[in-house]
Amino acid sequence: MDGSATPAYRVNELTPDPSVSFDPKIARDYVTYAHRLAARGLVNSSVGGMVIRAPHPDHPDGICYAKPQGVSLEEVEVEDLVITDIPYGRILQGARATTVGHQMNREILRLRPDVNCVIHLHHDETIAFLAAGFQEIRSFSLTYGFLMQKPAHYLPASINVEEDVAPIKTFIQDTNCIIMRRHGFTVLGRTLSEAYHRTCVLVSEVKRNIIVETLCAVTGKSPEYISDEDLAQMGKHGDAVMYPTLVKR
Hints:
- The model has no long low-confidence stretch (mean pLDDT about 95).
- A hairpin with a 5-residue loop joins strand 3 (about 80-85) and strand 4 (about 90-95).
- The chain is globular and about 65 Å long.
- Strands 4-3-2-1-5-8-7-6 form an eight-stranded mixed β-sheet, with helices on both faces.
- The protein has one domain: 3-Layer(aba) Sandwich (L-fuculose-1-phosphate Aldolase), CATH 3.40.225.
- With about 250 residues, it is an alpha+beta fold.
- The protein has seven helices and eight strands, in the order H-E-E-E-E-H-E-H-H-E-E-E-H-H-H.
């Protein structure tokens, strides 16, 4: 789906599929990690979201677990969840509409078959840091590069890929994190756990940026950034350091 063709189905069209059923473990994991994000203070009202892809023999792109519109990640429970397809956003199980941001998540999953979880949050400190005039989030820690493994992609405030997914195809292969000015961020992971870890390391790095820049402004010292070259090297060896079981022997 490139944004120009008319889909065969309407987004949020109720098309129950008897071959699709809720996997209790995936549903429980969804709720567990949604509440973990909220416990970290990363959830604002009902905005933001998370999707988990699961394989399905009748759906080449898999199926997608999501929360419905109007339900916060902080409040979501198993019975609230819906399952959609990925190309069109048809509701295969459940009866409530998804958020507008679900089309962004689906497009990411469609374009990145290696990605199985997307987390999108309207993170206060990220929005504030960039609104204060800083152009990017720099790295001061060793964990960020090993976990994120690809550089973040920054979108200007004028581009909202939740509403228009067309630009996503131009950059999504080269990043695991989209920074959306005035909006928040979107983090990708091969697993739910990895997406969560990447989210946590990103918000920690934002916090470090604020602390370092504040201290340097007071003391007159210069921040000691990790170079882009070092980050690239860390990214290449990220699995060996963080996820050795994923390294091909």
